[in-house]
Amino acid sequence: MRLLFVSYWGLNEGLTAATVLPHLQILAGIETIEQIVFCSIERGGEANASSPKLHQKIVHIPLVSQPKGNVFLTKANDFIAFPKQLVQICKDYRIDKMICRSPMAGALGYLASRKNNVPFVVESFEPHAESMIESGVWTKLDPRYWIELYFENQQIKAADKIFPVSYHHKKRLIKEGLNENKIIVMPCCVALDKFKYDEEKRSAIRKKLQIEENQTVGIYVGKYGGIYYDEEAFDLYQSAFDFFGQSFRLIILTEQNREDVLNKCLSRGIQANSVFIQRASHGEVNAYLSAADFAFSTIKPVPSRLYCSPIKNGEYWANGLPILTEMNIGDDSDIIVREGGGVIVDIQNPAPAFQKMLGLITNGRGKISDEIQLLAKRHRSMNVVESIYRQEFSKPEQLTNL
Predict the structure, then answer these.
(1) Is 393 helix (H, G, I), strand (E, B) or coil?
(2) Do the beta carbons of residue 372 and residue 340 sit within 8 Å?
(3) How many structural domains does the chain have?
(4) Of 32, 86, 93, 374, which is the most buried if we count CB atoms within 10 A?
(5) Are residues 360 and 390 in the same domain?
(6) Domain check: are 26 and 173 in the same one?
C-alpha cells in the first residue's frame, strides 16, 4: 500500500512534532505499507530547509504557500494550487489512499479525490468552523466560516472514514445520520516515553528556577485567546496564588510575547519572581512538566469543545500531572470525573477545586504520577493510534491501485 499523508501544519511546528511525526513512524512500521508521501504546508513562500530524519519509507514533499497580499487571497491560491499538486503526487507515486490530518487538510484531500478518485480518510476531525464562531475568532459574516463549514460537510459525505477525536462527536455524527461503520474515534495521542515524569529533571528545573521542593507549582503550556481563555486564565492564576499562598509558583510555556504575559500577571498582583515565562522546544517541555505539581488546561468550554481532544492534556497526563479544567472539554472532563487524573473547576468559584487539588498532590509527585500515567496509557497512548492504523491500513485487500 502507498499512502499520501497530508498535514495542514509546517514541518517545524509544534503540532507536527507532537501529532504528525509519531503517526508517520507508526505507519512506516506497518509491513503492508510500502511507501508514505508526507506533505506539510510551508508558509511564507519557501520550503523549510531543515528536515527531521524520517523513516526510509517516508518521502517528504512540502506544499509551499505563496503569499498573495492578504490571508483570503493566499488561502484561495492554496486551495487552487495544492489539490492540483496532490493529484499529481498521487499519480507519480501511485497512491492508494490519502490520510488527511485535520478538516483543513481534509478539504484539500476532498478536492484532490474528486479529480482522481483516490479514497481518503480524515483524522483529528472536529467541527472547526463551529468552534471558531463560538470562540469569537470568526463571525458568521466571515467567508472562512462558510467555506470551512461547506468542506467539513463534504468530507463527512465523501471520506472513506472519519476519525473524530471524541466519543461525544461520534454520537453526534451518528445522530446526524452518518453510518457508524464510517466512524473511528482517535483521540489526540502522545508519545508517552517523551513526556514521562523524570525526578532528575524535576530537581534540575526547580534548582534553575530557585523553587524549593516544598513549594507548589502550577504549569500552563500553550496560547492565550482564540479557543483558549485569555484574561480569565490570569484571573484563575491569581486565585491560585490567593489559595496556595505566596510560596506558590507558576510556570508558563508559551510562544506569545513574554512582556505581555508578564504584565497580565503583574496587573493581578502576581510578583515577577513568582512566575516563570519561557519559550520551550517540544523536546524541552517534559522537564518543565516534571517540575510542576499540577497543570492548568484553560480551554473555553463553548459547546463545540465537547468534540475536542486537547493534545496538551495528553502531555500533562503522560507526565503524571493532574489537570485543572472545566466540564465539557471533550472526553477528558468525563474521564476526570470517572477515573481521576485531575479536578473539575468552576472558574467563577475556583477555591473548592484548588482544595481538591491540594488533596491530590499532598502525598507527593511520585505516587500520583504513577496513577495518572496509567490513565494516559489507557486513553492517550500511541498504541491507540497504532491499533487503528493496523486495523485500517494493513489488510491486503485494501491494495486497490497496485
Answers:
(1) helix
(2) yes
(3) 2
(4) 86
(5) no
(6) yes
Per DSSP, what are the bridge partners of residue 121? 99, 161
- Helix (H), strand (E), coil (C) string for 158-225: HCCEEEECCHHHHHHHHHCCCCHHHECCCCCCECHHHHCCCHHHHHHHHHHCCCCCCCCEEEEECCCE
Residue type, 210: Q
The model's pTM is 0.93
Residue 76: what pLDDT? 87
Q: Hey, how many other C-beta atoms are within 10 angstroms of the C-beta on 281?
A: 10
What residues have CB less than 8 Å from 153, skipping those under 6 apart? none
DSSP state of 299: B
CATH number for the domain harbouring residue 161 = 3.40.50.2000
- Same domain for 209 and 121, yes or no, is no
DSSP state of 152: H
Nearest to 213 by CA among 277, 292, 278, 271: 292
Cell of 153: 460537510
User: What's the pLDDT score for residue 70?
Assistant: 84
Q: What is the mean pLDDT of the chain?
A: 94
pLDDT of res. 262 = 98
3-state secondary structure 51-118: CCCCCCCEEECCEEECCCCCHHHHHHHHHHHHHHHHHHHHHHHCCCEEEEECHHHHHHHHHHHHHHCC
**One domain for residues 82 and 167:** yes
Same domain, 232 and 366: yes
Question: What gap in Å lies between CA 49 and CA 344, rounded to an integer?
Answer: 44
How far apart (Å, rounded) are the C-alpha atoms in residues 20 and 349? 38
Are 57 and 73 within one domain? Answer: yes
